[in-house]
Amino acid sequence: MAVKQKTILAVEDEPKILEVITSFLESGGYAVFGAETGAQALAIFERENISLVLLDLMLPDMPGEAVCQRLRQSSRVPILMLTAKVEEESLLNGLGMGADDYITKPFSLKALGARIEAALRRANEDVRPLLAKHAFGDGDLIVDFEKNTVKKRGEEVLLTPSEMNLLAALVKYPGKVFTRAELIEIALGSAFDGYDRAVDTHIKNLRQKIESDSKKPDYIVTVHGLGYKFGG
Ligand code: CA
To answer: Could you tell me the pTM of the whole model?
Structure first.
Protein backbone atom coordinates (compact mmCIF):
# COMPACT_ATOMS: atom_id res chain seq x y z
CA MET A 1 0.00 0.00 0.00
CA ALA A 2 1.42 3.36 -0.98
CA VAL A 3 1.64 5.67 2.01
CA LYS A 4 1.92 9.38 1.46
CA GLN A 5 5.41 10.46 2.41
CA LYS A 6 5.57 12.48 5.61
CA THR A 7 7.73 15.58 5.72
CA ILE A 8 9.70 16.40 8.85
CA LEU A 9 11.27 19.72 9.71
CA ALA A 10 14.38 19.07 11.84
CA VAL A 11 15.59 22.16 13.72
CA GLU A 12 19.02 21.68 15.27
CA ASP A 13 22.01 24.04 15.29
CA GLU A 14 24.58 21.29 15.80
CA PRO A 15 25.42 20.32 12.19
CA LYS A 16 26.58 16.82 13.09
CA ILE A 17 23.43 15.99 15.02
CA LEU A 18 21.29 17.46 12.24
CA GLU A 19 23.11 15.33 9.70
CA VAL A 20 22.69 12.12 11.70
CA ILE A 21 19.00 12.80 12.33
CA THR A 22 18.39 13.69 8.69
CA SER A 23 20.00 10.59 7.24
CA PHE A 24 18.24 8.40 9.81
CA LEU A 25 14.83 9.86 8.96
CA GLU A 26 15.45 9.74 5.22
CA SER A 27 16.39 6.07 5.46
CA GLY A 28 13.09 5.59 7.31
CA GLY A 29 11.19 6.99 4.33
CA TYR A 30 10.59 10.53 5.55
CA ALA A 31 11.33 13.66 3.57
CA VAL A 32 13.41 16.00 5.73
CA PHE A 33 14.05 19.74 5.77
CA GLY A 34 16.87 20.80 8.07
CA ALA A 35 17.13 24.20 9.76
CA GLU A 36 19.96 25.47 11.97
CA THR A 37 18.19 28.56 13.28
CA GLY A 38 14.71 29.45 14.46
CA ALA A 39 14.30 31.96 11.65
CA GLN A 40 15.18 29.33 9.03
CA ALA A 41 12.75 26.91 10.64
CA LEU A 42 9.88 29.39 10.54
CA ALA A 43 10.61 30.28 6.90
CA ILE A 44 10.62 26.62 5.86
CA PHE A 45 7.47 25.92 7.84
CA GLU A 46 5.71 28.78 6.09
CA ARG A 47 6.66 27.41 2.68
CA GLU A 48 6.27 23.65 3.01
CA ASN A 49 3.61 21.23 4.17
CA ILE A 50 5.31 19.90 7.26
CA SER A 51 3.91 16.82 9.05
CA LEU A 52 6.03 17.08 12.19
CA VAL A 53 8.64 19.40 13.70
CA LEU A 54 11.70 18.23 15.65
CA LEU A 55 12.75 21.25 17.63
CA ASP A 56 16.00 21.77 19.50
CA LEU A 57 15.49 23.91 22.58
CA MET A 58 18.79 25.84 22.40
CA LEU A 59 19.12 27.67 19.08
CA PRO A 60 21.51 30.51 18.24
CA ASP A 61 18.93 33.14 17.30
CA MET A 62 15.89 32.44 19.48
CA PRO A 63 14.82 29.92 22.10
CA GLY A 64 13.05 26.80 20.87
CA GLU A 65 10.07 27.78 23.02
CA ALA A 66 9.67 30.94 20.96
CA VAL A 67 9.72 28.94 17.73
CA CYS A 68 7.17 26.57 19.20
CA GLN A 69 4.92 29.42 20.24
CA ARG A 70 5.12 30.97 16.78
CA LEU A 71 4.26 27.67 15.11
CA ARG A 72 1.30 27.20 17.44
CA GLN A 73 -0.18 30.52 16.37
CA SER A 74 -1.00 29.01 13.02
CA SER A 75 -0.76 25.23 13.23
CA ARG A 76 -1.46 22.08 15.20
CA VAL A 77 1.55 20.34 13.65
CA PRO A 78 3.07 17.81 16.10
CA ILE A 79 6.16 19.31 17.75
CA LEU A 80 8.75 17.08 19.38
CA MET A 81 11.29 18.96 21.49
CA LEU A 82 14.94 17.90 21.60
CA THR A 83 16.47 18.87 24.91
CA ALA A 84 19.47 18.28 27.16
CA LYS A 85 18.84 17.21 30.73
CA VAL A 86 20.02 20.50 32.20
CA GLU A 87 17.34 22.24 30.21
CA GLU A 88 14.50 20.51 31.99
CA GLU A 89 12.99 23.68 33.35
CA SER A 90 12.95 25.19 29.88
CA LEU A 91 11.46 21.97 28.66
CA LEU A 92 8.46 22.35 30.93
CA ASN A 93 8.02 25.82 29.51
CA GLY A 94 8.26 24.30 26.05
CA LEU A 95 5.44 21.91 26.77
CA GLY A 96 3.44 24.85 28.09
CA MET A 97 4.05 26.52 24.75
CA GLY A 98 2.35 23.66 22.97
CA ALA A 99 4.99 21.05 22.23
CA ASP A 100 3.51 17.55 22.06
CA ASP A 101 6.40 15.58 23.44
CA TYR A 102 10.10 15.80 24.21
CA ILE A 103 13.14 13.61 24.04
CA THR A 104 16.26 14.15 26.14
CA LYS A 105 19.73 14.24 24.63
CA PRO A 106 21.58 12.03 24.16
CA PHE A 107 18.88 9.85 22.65
CA SER A 108 19.00 6.75 20.50
CA LEU A 109 17.80 7.04 16.94
CA LYS A 110 15.49 4.12 17.59
CA ALA A 111 13.82 5.99 20.45
CA LEU A 112 13.55 9.11 18.29
CA GLY A 113 11.92 7.11 15.49
CA ALA A 114 9.41 5.61 17.92
CA ARG A 115 8.49 9.04 19.35
CA ILE A 116 8.02 10.44 15.87
CA GLU A 117 5.78 7.57 14.83
CA ALA A 118 3.72 7.93 17.99
CA ALA A 119 3.31 11.68 17.50
CA LEU A 120 2.29 11.24 13.86
CA ARG A 121 -0.18 8.51 14.84
CA ARG A 122 -1.79 10.74 17.46
CA ALA A 123 -1.99 13.56 14.95
CA ASN A 124 -3.67 11.22 12.47
CA GLU A 125 -6.28 10.22 15.02
CA ASP A 126 -7.06 13.85 15.59
CA VAL A 127 -10.35 14.46 13.82
CA ARG A 128 -9.33 18.01 13.01
CA PRO A 129 -7.43 18.40 9.77
CA LEU A 130 -3.71 18.37 10.41
CA LEU A 131 -2.98 20.71 7.58
CA ALA A 132 -4.74 23.96 8.21
CA LYS A 133 -2.22 25.51 5.91
CA HIS A 134 -1.85 24.80 2.22
CA ALA A 135 1.13 25.94 0.15
CA PHE A 136 1.22 25.91 -3.63
CA GLY A 137 3.77 26.70 -6.29
CA ASP A 138 6.80 26.46 -3.97
CA GLY A 139 5.23 28.85 -1.50
CA ASP A 140 3.95 31.25 -4.18
CA LEU A 141 0.45 30.93 -2.72
CA ILE A 142 -0.24 30.08 0.92
CA VAL A 143 -3.77 29.57 2.19
CA ASP A 144 -4.04 29.32 5.95
CA PHE A 145 -7.50 28.33 7.17
CA GLU A 146 -6.66 28.63 10.83
CA LYS A 147 -5.46 32.21 10.57
CA ASN A 148 -7.86 32.84 7.73
CA THR A 149 -5.12 34.44 5.70
CA VAL A 150 -3.84 34.19 2.15
CA LYS A 151 -0.33 35.11 1.08
CA LYS A 152 0.89 35.68 -2.44
CA ARG A 153 4.69 35.67 -2.76
CA GLY A 154 4.96 36.23 0.98
CA GLU A 155 2.64 39.24 0.99
CA GLU A 156 -0.72 39.00 2.64
CA VAL A 157 -3.63 39.58 0.28
CA LEU A 158 -6.94 40.74 1.63
CA LEU A 159 -9.89 38.72 0.41
CA THR A 160 -13.54 39.50 0.95
CA PRO A 161 -15.46 36.82 2.88
CA SER A 162 -17.07 35.64 -0.38
CA GLU A 163 -13.70 35.36 -2.10
CA MET A 164 -12.27 33.48 0.90
CA ASN A 165 -15.21 31.05 0.88
CA LEU A 166 -14.77 30.39 -2.82
CA LEU A 167 -11.05 29.88 -2.52
CA ALA A 168 -11.50 27.59 0.50
CA ALA A 169 -13.94 25.35 -1.37
CA LEU A 170 -11.65 25.12 -4.39
CA VAL A 171 -8.51 24.45 -2.32
CA LYS A 172 -10.14 21.80 -0.15
CA TYR A 173 -11.19 19.77 -3.20
CA PRO A 174 -8.35 20.18 -5.67
CA GLY A 175 -9.28 18.99 -9.14
CA LYS A 176 -13.02 18.87 -8.42
CA VAL A 177 -15.01 20.88 -10.94
CA PHE A 178 -17.46 23.24 -9.25
CA THR A 179 -20.42 24.52 -11.21
CA ARG A 180 -21.29 28.21 -10.99
CA ALA A 181 -24.43 27.28 -9.05
CA GLU A 182 -22.38 25.39 -6.46
CA LEU A 183 -19.93 28.25 -6.16
CA ILE A 184 -22.59 30.90 -5.73
CA GLU A 185 -24.10 28.85 -2.95
CA ILE A 186 -20.67 28.59 -1.32
CA ALA A 187 -19.85 32.26 -1.78
CA LEU A 188 -23.17 33.73 -0.73
CA GLY A 189 -24.41 30.97 1.53
CA SER A 190 -27.59 30.39 -0.46
CA ALA A 191 -28.63 29.45 -3.97
CA PHE A 192 -29.84 32.14 -6.31
CA ASP A 193 -31.07 31.72 -9.84
CA GLY A 194 -29.57 33.99 -12.42
CA TYR A 195 -26.58 35.06 -10.40
CA ASP A 196 -24.03 33.12 -12.41
CA ARG A 197 -22.29 36.30 -13.47
CA ALA A 198 -21.73 37.20 -9.82
CA VAL A 199 -19.53 34.14 -9.53
CA ASP A 200 -17.55 35.19 -12.57
CA THR A 201 -16.99 38.59 -10.97
CA HIS A 202 -15.80 37.05 -7.70
CA ILE A 203 -13.51 34.70 -9.62
CA LYS A 204 -12.12 37.56 -11.66
CA ASN A 205 -11.33 39.57 -8.53
CA LEU A 206 -9.84 36.53 -6.81
CA ARG A 207 -7.61 35.84 -9.79
CA GLN A 208 -6.33 39.39 -9.77
CA LYS A 209 -5.32 38.91 -6.15
CA ILE A 210 -3.73 35.46 -6.23
CA GLU A 211 -2.62 34.69 -9.78
CA SER A 212 0.70 35.84 -11.23
CA ASP A 213 -1.08 36.38 -14.55
CA SER A 214 -4.85 36.57 -14.21
CA LYS A 215 -5.22 35.93 -17.95
CA LYS A 216 -3.32 32.65 -17.61
CA PRO A 217 -4.41 31.42 -14.18
CA ASP A 218 -2.51 28.61 -12.47
CA TYR A 219 -4.82 28.22 -9.50
CA ILE A 220 -8.38 28.99 -10.48
CA VAL A 221 -8.81 27.20 -13.73
CA THR A 222 -11.84 27.56 -16.01
CA VAL A 223 -13.40 24.30 -17.12
CA HIS A 224 -15.25 25.33 -20.25
CA GLY A 225 -18.96 24.68 -20.17
CA LEU A 226 -18.81 23.42 -16.58
CA GLY A 227 -17.34 25.87 -14.11
CA TYR A 228 -14.08 26.15 -12.23
CA LYS A 229 -11.58 23.97 -10.47
CA PHE A 230 -8.44 24.42 -8.42
CA GLY A 231 -5.29 23.69 -10.36
CA GLY A 232 -2.60 24.36 -7.72
CA1 CA B 1 21.30 23.42 20.29
So the answer is: 0.55
